[in-house]
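subagent[fold] <- orchestrator: predict structure for attached chain, return tokens only, no commentary.
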Amino acid sequence: MDNEIIELKSSGHPDTLTDLCVEACATGLDQYYMSKYGKILHYNVDKALFLAGNATIQYGGGSILKPPTFILGGQVSEIEEDLCSMLETRIRAIVAQYLPNLKDFRVEIRCNNVSGNLADIGGKRRCNDTSFGVGYAPFSQTELMVLDIDHELMRMVWMHRASKDDSVPLGELWKIMCTPRHIFISAPLYAQEIKCKEQYEDVKTTIEDRLSKYGSVVFNPDFVEGFPYMTLIGSSIECGDDGQVGRGNRLNGLITPCRPMTIEAFSGKNRMNHTGRIYQMWAQQRATELYQKTGKPVSVILVSQIGHPLEDYEEYITYA
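subagent[fold] -> orchestrator:
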């Protein structure tokens, strides 16, 4: 594609982290309902906020003034204390996995209990929303490159965790913005290990050099204007940057505004009948199958009607 704009948010980004948390909650609800009732009751936990805390950060360290707060909303059938406890446990496990240095944060479960006439809808294979899903194939070379850069940055994080001699103190959060001219990467460095402006500049140059094989890489461009991007726990969730479901990567791991895409959140939706989730998976599978069969780049859009059987959708196929 010409003039591609591609964005990617890492697992430590507040938006992506929020998506991961509600996905874990959805998996937990599936298992909880099957174990207790033998079927999956109605739920949607695709509404959540990860509110940033507050901190002071400077070269050499800083301090956390106020911890972040994760707020889970949505609808949950038969909500009880043990279910709320399960949801909180899953949220904390995800944060520990993807942002291990965030030790202190609050969790608030504010889900509403589903009314009786909706509680059993989860067992019925009918669309519970009028929505659409989009898929396309194949990935462009630029999209594959952005995914590869993401892997390179994750390797830097692993090297830092393992205390390798040539590691860089890179936090778990980054956002990649790829344009036809530049690759901009914003990611905080651990303040505890950056003692001065000169050291920060050296690390910035090192990261840009390691990624130069991908093109014109600019790491933390705001540093030039006197704003070093630093962290105490690996992510801006510690201060100044909230997370919200659906603002992160799409199902394919990318944000691709130059491609056909849905703005529907994927994470946290009921896996049994929410077409905002299911049709995204089906559209991507359909696009992949058509590309493998024809060898032609293709996009697929599936549109649902609320109350209709899941398989009763409108399909729109476009070949490049």
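orchestrator: received. Logging for downstream: The two ends are 10 Å apart (CA to CA). The chain has five helices and 18 strands.
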